[in-house]
Amino acid sequence: QLQASGGGLVQAGGSLRLSCVASGRTFRSYAVAWFRQTPGKEREFVAAFSRTGGSTYYKDSVKGRFTISRDNAKNTVYLQMNNLKPEDTAVYYCAADPNTITSTIRKIIAYDYWGQGTQVTVSS
Known about the structure:
Blueprint: E1 2-5, E2 8-11, E3 16-22, E4 31-37, E5 44-49, E6 56-58, E7 66-71, E8 76-81, E9 90-97, E10 113-114, E11 118-123
Parallel strand pairs: 2-11
Antiparallel strand pairs: 1-3, 3-8, 4-5, 4-9, 5-6, 7-8, 9-10, 9-11
């Protein structure tokens, strides 16, 4: 089970840190990703760690502003979001899978385990 938290309301230019905690499993050998979704739109990829944890991937529009990191001791993956923009407003979901490979790491179908989502709202 994945539990996402850390969302909230912030002004443009502000920062938030999202957390995704895994219970009953370890992230150590899983690809872990963050996706986001706004009403009426498809869920979209934001950032991910590869299964080995050695590679990170980002949506182009968040590069340089968002950072994905992991704390294996706490079984937690973080998404640090800086310089937030109104277009970052969405429900953010964490996802994990032990079988996700690089070629599919940005795809929703590559992940079997999902958290419940946390709302991020950025005001202008």
